[in-house]
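Researcher: Checking consistency across runs. Here is SDR family oxidoreductase again:
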Amino acid sequence: MQDLPLFPDLSGASVFITGGGSGIGAFLTEGFLRQGAKVAFVQRSDATGFCDEMEAATGQRPLFLPCDITDTPALQAAIAAAAAAHGPVTVLVNNAANDKRHATLEVTEEFWDWSQAINLKSYFFAAQAVIPGMVAAGGGSIVNFTSISYMMGNAGYPAYTTANSAINGMTRSLAREFGPSRIRVNALAPGWVLTQKQKDLWVTPEGLQAHLDRQCLSDPLEPADIVGGVLFLASRASKMMTGQALVIDGGVVVTG
C-alpha cells in the first residue's frame, strides 16, 4: 500500500467496516490498521487467512465477524460484538455492495429486494446501530460508499444505480439529524476501481480504454487509491465536513 499521512485521532479508534476482507474493503482494513485503529469487519466468506496476513503485515489483527449484511439482526449483533471488543464504534464504513449486471425488463421483485438489501438497506441499519454509541462517545464519522455510476446515468444495473443515488439522500438526512451530536455522515463515490472482481467479470481492454479516455487522469483506479479519502473523512481532519459526497474517479464526473 502507498504511504499515507497519519491521522493521530484514528489511533485507537473503534472502526467497523462492511465487506472489509476483500476488494476495496481489504485495503480499507489495512489502511485503518496502519493508523493504529481497532478494526472489526464483516463479510460472508471466511477471512481468517486475510486476518493472518494483516497481523503479519501491520502487527495488529482485525476482528473478523462472519455475517450476511442482508440479515439485519445478524448485522446488528456483529456491530454489538465489535463494540464489546473495541469500545463503541466511532467510525463506520458502509463499503459492501454488489453491482451485478441486470436488464430492467428481466428484474424480478425478488432480485430488486435482494439488491436494495445489500446496497441500501444494510447501510441504513448499520448506521442506526452505531449512532447511539457515537452519541454517547460525543461524536463519530459514518462513510457511505456510493458510486459515480448513477451520476453518469449508466445503464446495465438500474437497481444498483437506484441504491447509489438513494445513499446520497440518506447521507444528507442523517447528517442533518445527527449533526447536533457531532456525528458526521458523508458519502464517497469511487469511479471504476479495478478490483480483482471487476477484472474477472467486467473489464475488457476496449471497455477500460473507453473509460480511461473519459478520465482527466489517465491512470486506472486501484483499490489503494480510495483509502486516503476514507481516512480523511473518518478523521477529525474533516471535522466540519458532513452531508457531502467525495468523488474519487480520476476526473470522470465534475461536481459543484
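Researcher: Does this match what you'd expect to see?
Model: One thing to look at in this run: DSSP finds eight helices and seven strands in the chain.
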